[in-house]
Protein 1
Amino acid sequence: QVQLVESGGGLAQAGGSLRLSCAASGIALSSYTMAWFRQAPGKERQFVAAISRDALTTDHSESVRGRFTISRDNAKNTVYLQMNSLKPQDTAVYSCAAKEPALAVYNYWGQGTQVTVSS
């Protein structure tokens, strides 16, 4: 049974930091492109960041570039999202996702973790 479980969400002040983790079971993350998405109330889910299997390539959305950093540890079967300089508009449910590199869609999704940034 494939399972992705996010953790590390919570309440942070504007300008603060949080580190999200996504732990996988039933799947070897070394074979997958990994990504983080977020969805705020009343808004469409948006892409945050992605990382290649070997971690040599990363992609961060313009809204988080320079503040958030995606990383992975394949030995721990875990992907991370380090979030610095948080803003209230970063408030959302953050989900991790996995896909085979050649595919256009993400096959597996976690349940999400809430991030709330106060001003």
Note: DSSP finds no helices and eleven strands in the chain.
Protein 2
Amino acid sequence: QVQLVESGGGLVQAGGSLRLSCAASGMFFSINAMGWYRQAPGKQRELVATITSGTNGGSTNYADSVKGRFTISRDNAKNTVYLQMNSLKPEDTAVYYCNADLILPSLVYWGQGTQVTVSS
């Protein structure tokens, strides 16, 4: 009923930048928060960044490993969240997953993921 579609992944050299986007569509009343997680081969999924859907850009939360390099933002009218990734490092290589915390229904949905590969 609800679908999250990620885009913007790809291959980039260390020090480069990528911008990910995730659009939510389907039947729901509102979105409480959206975020990005990532999973590298052989590792557990980890939080990258989250953002609420409030006014003035919402409130944000970042993993320590990406603070100062990544910026999360959203467009409430489009039900879309973005992740601007700068100064990318090889250790950022992972599949990045979008998620959305929905209201009515109160459920969490996940996207299929988009591959980000950073070469050294």
Note: Residues 40 and 94 are 4 Å apart (CA to CA).
